[in-house]
Amino acid sequence: EVQKLNQQLEEKNGEIQQMINQPPYEKEREILRLQKTLAEKEKAQATSDVLCRSLTDETHQLQRKLASTAEMCQHLAKCLEEKQRKEKGNSDDHIPTERSNQLLDNETSLQALICNLQDENRMLKQKVAHV
């Protein structure tokens, strides 16, 4: 490994000697090329930073939306339980009414929405990690 590192050091020294021996206009051209490369990398980094902030903001918005949706689901589940208890108490033959069916449909659609939001949140987290 030391020999490998010494060889790499010799190669770098050779490159430095080549640079020193180059005519001034070639040095200037190399400097300009390196400056251009640096500017491109800085621009790419700035774009990446903007995208990360945007994804972070969107993730926070989705998390808040998911939390409010979960809260709504819990509230609807409680309402459904209370309604079912009341109906069960009123009659032994519990026949679901249109309102309870509506609550079940709402709960199902909210659960589907929660699943979708969780999937989207997971994908956004993966994008953030990738960026």
TrEMBL record:
Residues of the signal peptide: none
Residue ranges of the region described as Disordered: 1-25, 82-102
Keywords: Coiled coil
Coiled-coil ranges from the UniProt annotation: none
GO cellular component, one term: cytoplasm
Domain of life: Eukaryota
A Gene Ontology biological process term: toll-like receptor 2 signaling pathway
UniProt feature, compositional bias: Basic and acidic residues: 1-14, 82-97
PANTHER family given in the database record: TNFAIP3-INTERACTING PROTEIN 2, TNFAIP3-INTERACTING PROTEIN COILED COIL FAMILY MEMBER
Name the UniProt record assigns to this protein: TNIP2 protein
Species name: Mionectes macconnelli
Encoding gene per record: Tnip2
